[in-house]
Each structure stands twice: as C-alpha cells, then as structure tokens.
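Input/output pair, single chain:
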Amino acid sequence: MDALEVIYQRRAVKHYDPNHKITPQEEQKLLEATIQAPTSFNIQHWRFVILRDPELRQKIRELGFDQAQMTEASLLILFTADIKAWEKEPHRYWHNAPEQVAKQLVGMIEPFHQGREWLQRDEAQRSIGMAMQTLMLTAKAMGYDSCPMIGFDIQKVAELINLPEDYVMGPMVAIGKKVKDSWPKPGQLPLSELVVENKF
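Output:
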C-alpha cells in the first residue's frame, strides 16, 4: 500500500476483534514510526501512555461514553505531552547534529518558549496531533485500523493515570483488527471552500 492509498483508506474504526493480539515487535514498529513525527525544535514532548491493564481500560470506557473500542482494540494509546520539555536538558534534542547547528538551535529554544505558556501548550498539542496521524497511518500500512478519540472525561482519566501537573492531555488512539467496516465517508468539503490564496 503506497502512502496516498494509506491516507485515503484510513478510517475511524469502532469495532475490533478483542481476541487479536498485536505482537511486541509490531508494537515497537508502530511506536518507532510514530516518533518520526516532527516537533518544534525537535523537542519530542509527546509521552505515550500504553493502556494495557484491562481493569483500567474498563474504567476509561466508563468515562468514555461506553465506547467499545476502548476495551476491545488490541492497543489503546493515550497521547500526552510534557509542556515543559523545552527546558529539560534541551541539548539532548540535538546531540546528533553538527556542533554549530546544535548550539544555534538549542540557544533559540528558551527565548522562543520562556514566559509564553499559551505557546508551550499549543506546541504540545500540535505535536500530539502530528504523532497521532503518524501512528494511524503506520497502523493502516501494517494492516491494522485505528480510531482517534477525545470523547472521555479528560480530568478523571488524568487522575486515573496520575498525569503530571506540567503535562497536557491529548486524545487516545485505539488500534486493532476491525470486525466491522466504517460507514461510507460522510463527505469532504470542496477545496474551493477550504483553500485561501494569500489573504482572507
């Protein structure tokens, strides 16, 4: 399946085979591809919470409008991000870069983020979004389906997973073998309504 085919075939699938297991090797492949997603200044502030415990997943399902995929999918991954990753040993984000490049980029991280809490949070959520899409497209390329979800009680789920104070909560993604197709695509808006040239 080529990249364009993967993009067009990816759907939000709700029904999964609860008996299907994703192997540790497949999970590793999924996650290693996911972290190829871009982040501002290469900060990589996403933190992926793999929700494995069946009891925990059942509690999350109760907080998530009883969505079956929360317990039936092979994998359930909650996306979070460390809002303060920019100030935590930033040199490590550029350790493989040429020295001059690393020095310049690391030197820009603090002035860009310092005192701009709104930006720190926005950047964290932007990075989560790009990583989620990378995960879902990788899953499709590997023969799996996925479903992104934000329909759950964010505060209560944050408590269940002991979300650190300086982290932001994003959506979760279910991944597995579908047992039922999604309904037909409801329809995309025309590009003429979505694309603006130069100015509004």
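Residues 117-141 form the longest helix (25 residues). The first strand starts at residue 46 and ends at 50.
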